[in-house]
Amino acid sequence: MNVVSLFSGAGGLDLGFIMAGHEIIWANDVFADAVETYRRNIGNHIVCEDIFLIDASAVPDCDIIIGGFPCQGFSVANTKRCEGDSRNVLYKQLIRIIEAKKPSFFVAENVKGILSLGNGRVAQMILDDFTKMGYKVQAKLLNAADYGVPQTRQRVFFVGVRNGTNFVYEFPKPTHSPDGGDGLKKWVGVQDALKILPDPDQPNDIPNHVYSNYKLRFNGYLGHRTIDPNKPAPTVTARGDDRGGVVVLHHPNNKRRMSCRELATVQGFPIRFEFCGNRSSVYRQIGNAVPPLLASAVARSFNAYGEK
């Protein structure tokens, strides 16, 4: 099916839909480095512009609208988050475009923290807003590790099916579990995921395989935790847009930080997916992305509609 992507960033969500067999026909983001990354790896159909300035008539008709709308106001990593955070209203722009284009489906992704913000009032407000547009809406918290991503990244997916559409969306069933029980594969450990990469301190031609020399600290806080090499990595985190800070996980040897490429591998990006911009920008793009494998699992559930 034809897909329009909003708040696309470097393209993790889009890449997952492409992996599932869908076609992205138009995309938008305001972060110039992420847009250049997208163009280099996915296509020239992305527009670098503030979503507030884009007229809905400029967006092509489509079957699905997807969007990982900016989450910094909702994230549990943001200790100052509140219902009134100005960044929280960006999802209204997603609603504006959905209401104008009336696609058969939409997928909106956000952080786990959105469920608890305002004691659940924010999530309910979002569900109500989507429902008022004429959609049957479901929301579910998914763990990327349950779908083969070497990272325990939990994200909420809101999926809408337009009223009158003969289709019931079913969230994908896990393919992996912590211990590999019930016929599922075992969660992928971060050490296993990274073994395909050479030592970044040795000569290599792997794109973005450079790391921050920031001195390691081990105090239990975000970005300063010991990594268990046999388990999926903790959540890869970026704090915001090009003005936000960057939090980089330790390498599983716990002697340095992960390189940009290693962090991208933990997110599930292909090894030749090349990110543009300086090192901090690349770390940020990776941290803000949706893991393509998780996105692909969500996207494949729509394929049953195309097979009707």
Multimerization status: single chain
> How much strand?
15-25%
Q: Provide the structure class.
A: alpha/beta
Order of helices and strands: EHEHEEHEHEEEEHEEHHHH
Keywords:
seven-stranded mixed β-sheet; alpha/beta; 308 residues; Rossmann fold; globular
Overview of the molecule:
- By secondary structure, this protein is α/β, with parallel strands linked by helices.
- The chain has a domain at 2-176 and 290-306: Vaccinia Virus protein VP39 (Rossmann fold), CATH 3.40.50.
- 25% of the residues lie in helices and 17% in strands.
- It has nine helices and eleven strands.
- It has helices at residues 12-19, 32-41, 91-101, 121-132, 190-194, 260-267, 279-288, 292-300, 303-306, and strands at residues 2-6, 23-29, 46-48, 64-67, 105-111, 135-143, 154-162, 176-177, 185-186, 237-238, 246-247.
- The strands form three sheets. It has a seven-stranded mixed sheet, sandwiched between helices. It has a two-stranded parallel sheet with strand order 8-9. It has a two-stranded antiparallel sheet with strand order 10-11.
- A hairpin with a 7-residue loop joins strand 10 and strand 11.
- Helix 6 packs parallel to helix 7.
- The longest helix is centred in the middle third of the chain and has 12 residues, at 121-132.
- The radius of gyration is 19 Å and the shape is globular.
- The model is unreliable at 75-87 (pLDDT under 50).
